[in-house]
Amino acid sequence: MAKFGVLETDPSMAGKATEELKKELQRLVSRIVDEDENCVDTTDRAVRILCALRDLKFKGSLDLGVEMENLALPQEFRCPISKQLMRDPVVVANGQTYDRAFIEKWLTEGHRTCPLTQQVLSHTILTPNNLVREMISEWCKEHRIEFPKVVKNVDEEVITAADRGYLNSLLGRMSSSVSDQKEAAKELRLLTKRLPSFRALFGECADAVPQLLSPLSPDAVDVDPDLQEDLITTVLNLSIHDNNKKLVAEDPMAIPMLIESLKSGTIETRTNAAAALFTLSALDSNKHIIGKAGAMKPLLDLLEEGHQLAMKDVASAIFNLCIVLENKGRAVHDGAVMVILKKIMDGILVDELLSILAMLSSHQRAVEEMGNLEAVPCLLKIIRESECERSKENCISILYSVCFNDRAKLRAIREEENAYGTISRLAQTGTSRAKRKANGILERLNRIASITHTA
User: Fold this and answer.
1) Strand 127-128 to strand 97-99: parallel, antiparallel, or no bridges (unpaired)?
2) Taking the model in full, what pTM does it have?
3) In what order do the strands lie in the sheet with 89-91?
4) What CA–CA distance (Å, rounded) separates 275 from 289?
5) Which helix (H) or strand (E) holds 450?
6) Is the pLDDT of residue 407 over 70?
7) pLDDT tens column, 333-349
């Protein structure tokens, strides 16, 4: 139950509070006397009121321990969901008033009905109930109670205690039979997707991630593919919560399990493993951990396979990892240039993969491979035909690196320029970076032409 603040020493207010407490005590005593069986709850409340009356008499103040309901909190001030004094009253589509945090949680969980009446809501817009808020404020002032602070995270404040026990029971079933594991894993997958509280709770228990992944341990034989999919997807859901990124990545089992799941399992499992690596790689420290663990080659293999469902998550993970210098080297060593160029030439995920290729163009070996793999004609064609300014910028950036590494490639660029004016046009209409790179190439072409003419 919600509690109320200390009643300051004020004779008139203290007298009013005393009268209300006495009336409530009289009602409770009558109930105790009339009931055939003594109700422990009623007796406890009566004892608390007696203690409050004692405090008022000897201390002149009312302790926090008295419940609001003992001062006859009007029913219309209670949230129908939490049964507590509303802190931020709002009106839903059918006119019913709730505390914002609790009705938002209800709607976030996927409900589209009024919790009290079960009417289907025509919309989910919440309108502040300023009248009720003002009435609650006046009631609090009258009873010398501090107006309650707004709940910002209802999951952590209200339901975490209940979730904790349920979470522990689900994790405990990971060491049970396969059918138990599958049932618990499916429930964890759903709960970590729907409830931020379940994602946050994993951070409170050091053993939660190892327990979750125990069915996928190296000792496990013939892991059920559905079980693997649910567990890997749960790790993905957990990694969404910022406080879990470090926790998951630094667990000795988690990254190796995700990497292994890139290689085997359903396509959903492999896709979600890539998505989890992408999400975890948001932290720079995790980029090093993931790269060092050997994730790059399986990611590139999955990209090369070309499963439509997995491509974007894989490309995003590779891009994030290549922000770190060491991982650029790993990507080039594992054949990234050939795999990515082939996909670009096939017209697959061109914009996303050009971003990776542009990042790799700062690596000497990658630039050499691009030149050898006939990247120049492909990149020029994209600049000429694409409507995406970012892709054009990435193409000209790569070309700049290639032609400064290998002067022989300038011939193809000169021929393109003479035929279509591609580089000149980009130098005038491209992004600021594209203009800079295009002008750099044009200056190089002009300088070579001048030297040739002089000779």
Assistant:
1) unpaired
2) 0.67
3) 97-99, 89-91, 127-128
4) 16
5) helix 432-454
6) yes
7) 999 999 999 999 999 99
